[in-house]
Amino acid sequence: MTPTRKILVAEDSSVIINLTKNVLMFEKYHITAVKNGKQVLEKLSKEDFDLILMDINMPIMDGIECTTVIRSLPDSKKSKIPIVAITGNYKNYTMDDFKKAGLNDYVQKPLDYDHLLATVKKYLT
């Protein structure tokens, strides 16, 4: 039996957190949700995750800044964790911008949950 994969969801919208949790928990993933980049870094310092779903526009510390910090962490397991951006204004960014920041992929809002699930599975299989 494979161990439960742990996903950290960074998103300031409770509605999106709840929908995302429902979709991913159906697939038996263990979900932890936080509201901003600072909380992502706090969680990551205490536990390991297999994937991070990172909203780009969050208060306190946004997803791009948070990803940049994660990529520079001394712990190579944590610094190489797959990070998928969740963004409503992807038109403001190119895939190049996301790659430069260290993001592996992105899913646009409004979220297509089949696409979200397929993207998550791509990194967790």
TrEMBL record:
Keyword Glycoprotein: no
PANTHER family: HYBRID SIGNAL TRANSDUCTION HISTIDINE KINASE J
Domain Response regulatory: 6-124
Protein name per the record: Response regulator receiver domain-containing protein
Modified residues (4-aspartylphosphate): 55
Organism whose genome encodes this protein: Cecembia rubra
Alphabetical keyword list: Phosphoprotein, Two-component regulatory system
Signal peptide (UniProt feature, chain positions): none
Keyword set includes Ligase: no
A Pfam family it matches: Response_reg
GO annotation (BP), single: phosphorelay signal transduction system
